[in-house]
Write a structure and sequence with these properties.
By secondary structure, the protein is mainly α. The protein has seven helices and two strands, in the order αααββαααα. Strands 1-2 form a two-stranded antiparallel ribbon. α1 packs across α3, α1 crosses α4 and α1 crosses α6.
Length: about 150
């Protein structure tokens, strides 16, 4: 898969939150994972990372839970990935070299440059609102994912 397990659960969890709770309402984690295959304990750790990155807010106690820090249309897929994993998926060398740029390009650099650009554009323009809308349009999605 293109994304780490942490990023996959961040995307799935945030999509569920945006789709079910909306931009203003908070939701307890137990309520969020109910009816999904999302692992509660792992998602709790992922969501804490997203709180630290400013994607989510959290409140303890009655009426608490997790809420989006901004409206879903203002949270890009790139922001989610960077918050979950700390790096942009389009910034590294495709073959894993420590240094790969225009002045010191790896053998694959020029071949992957347009792919990296298109992927970066997609990740910057696709928002959490888009992901939540897609989730709503595919009601069997939680049963298929795992």
């Amino acid at each position: 898969m293109l994304y780490s397990t942490t990023t996959q659960y961040a995307i799935r969890g945030l999509s569920e939150l945006a789709g079910r709770a909306g931009a203003k309402k908070s939701m307890m984690l137990d309520e969020l994972v109910a009816g999904t295959t999302l692992p509660r304990e792992f998602l709790a750790k992922v969501f804490q990372r997203l709180v630290k990155a400013g994607v989510l807010t959290s409140l303890k106690g009655r009426g608490g839970g997790f809420a989006l820090a901004r409206p879903p249309h203002e949270i890009s897929l790139m922001q989610i990935i960077e918050a979950a994993d700390g790096d942009s998926p389009v910034s590294g060398c495709v073959i894993g070299l420590d240094r790969c740029d225009e002045s010191m390009a790896c053998p694959q650099h020029d071949l992957y440059k347009p792919i990296r650009q298109r992927l970066g554009d997609y990740l910057e323009t696709t928002t959490l609102a888009d992901l939540a809308a897609s989730l709503k349009s595919k009601p069997a999605w939680p049963a298929r994912s795992g």
